Fold:
Amino acid sequence: MKSPSAIFNMTIACSAGLVTLLGYFIPPLAGIRDVLLQWAVILAGFALLVGIINLLSAHFRKLSKAKKGGFYSLVLILSFVGSLIVFGVSGPDGSWSLLLFNSVQVSVESTLLALLTVVLAYAAIRLFHKEVTRATVLFMLTFLIVLVSSAPLFGLSNTPLLSELREWLSSVPIVAGARGILIGVALGVLAAGLRILMGVDRPYGR
Amino acid sequence: MNLNELVTNLPGVAFILLFLILILLFYFTGRKRGTRFLRDIPAFGRLRHSVGLSVEAGSRVHFSLGRGVLTGLPTGISLAGMTLLERIARAASSSDRPPVATSGEGTLAILSQDVLKSAYRSMNVESQYEADAGRFTGATPFAFAAGAMTLIKDENISTNILLGHFGSEAALIADAGEQSSSLTIAGSDEVATQAVLYAMAQEPLIGEEAYASGAYLGAGAVHVASLRAQDILRWIIAAVILAGALAKLAGLL
Structure:
C-alpha cells in the first residue's frame, strides 16, 4: 500500500506534468505552463548548488577516510576554496578570475579534448578487434571515406570522386539513418513521459 | 482559442492520445502474453549477468546518468536512465558494495540519490544506502567525465552503465571502463554520441533501445505495453513518410 506522502508526490508530479503538456495544446493553460517551467529552472539552478555541496562532501569523506586518491580530493577542495575566493573578490569578469579560468580550466579541458581525439582514433582501430559484422564494416568504411575526404591529407580531400561520395553519404544514407534513430528516440521520450504522467515511473521517490 | 490554433494543435494531441490508448490497450490485453514478442537485445542479457556477477564478486556497478538538464529535451533519456538505475539498485541491493551513480547535473544527482534510497527502502535494506551513492562529479562536460573516470579507476567497478544525455566525453568514460577491464553498456539520445559509443562500448544501445530497459528488465507490464505501442507507432510513421514520398513523386504534394 502506498504511503500518503507517496500519493501526494505522485499527485503533484502528475498534475504538474499534465498541465505543462496541455499548455502546449490549449492556449489558456500556456500561462500556467510558463510559470511551472520557470519554477523548474529556478529549482534546477538551486540543484546545481546542492550538487556542488554533494561533490565537496564526497571528497571530504574520501579525504577523512584516507581512501585511495585522497590527495586528489585535497587538490579539488583547495582548488574550490581558492576559486571561490578569487571569483568572490575579483568578480566573474575580473582579470584574476579570467586569468584563472583561461590558464587552468581552458587548458585542462583542451587537453582532455586532445586526449579524446586519440581515444576515438584508438576506438576505431579497436572496433576491428571485436567481432567483425556487416554493420562494423559499413561503419568503418563510412568513417574512413568521410575522414579521408574531409581531412587535408595529401590533397585527397580535393579528389572529385571522394568529395561527391562524401556529399552523397552525408546527404542521403547518413541523414536517413539519423532521422530513423531520432524517430525512435522521440517515441521513446514520449513513452517515458506518458509513463510518468500515468504514475508508473516515479523518479521522485515512492 | 480560435479554430486555426485548434487545427494546428490537433495532430499533436491526436498522436499523444493514440499513444496513450495503445499503451492502455496493450496493458489490458497483453498482461498474460508477457515479454515473448520482444526481440533479443544482447546488452540487457549481458547486463543482468554482469550485475549478478558484481554482487557475487563484491565489486561495484557504476551508473552514469549524463548531464542532461531536466528542463529541456534530454529529460526523456534521463528519466529512462532513472528507471534502469532503480532496476539495477534493486538487483544489486544484496551486494556489499551497492551501485554508485554519477551525473553532471545537479537535479540528476539529487534524483539519483532519491531513486537509490527508494529502491533500498522498497527492498527493506535502507541501511545499504550511502550518502555519496548518487554523486555530482562536475559541472562541465569534461569535468564530469574526469570525475567519473576517477571513480571507475578507484572503486573496483566491474560494470559501467552509461544511460543519459552525453556528448563526446562519453568516449573518455567508456575508455576508462575498458582500461579497468569492466563491461560498458551505453546509450544516449544524441546521434553523434551513439556513433562514438558504437565504437567504444562493448554493448551499445542504439536509438530506441536506450528507452526499452524497463520492459527488458521486468519493470512492469506498462513498460512492455508502451514498447509495443512504440512499435506500432513507428510503423505508422514509416507508412506516412513513405506515402508522403510517393505522393511527392506523383506530384500530389
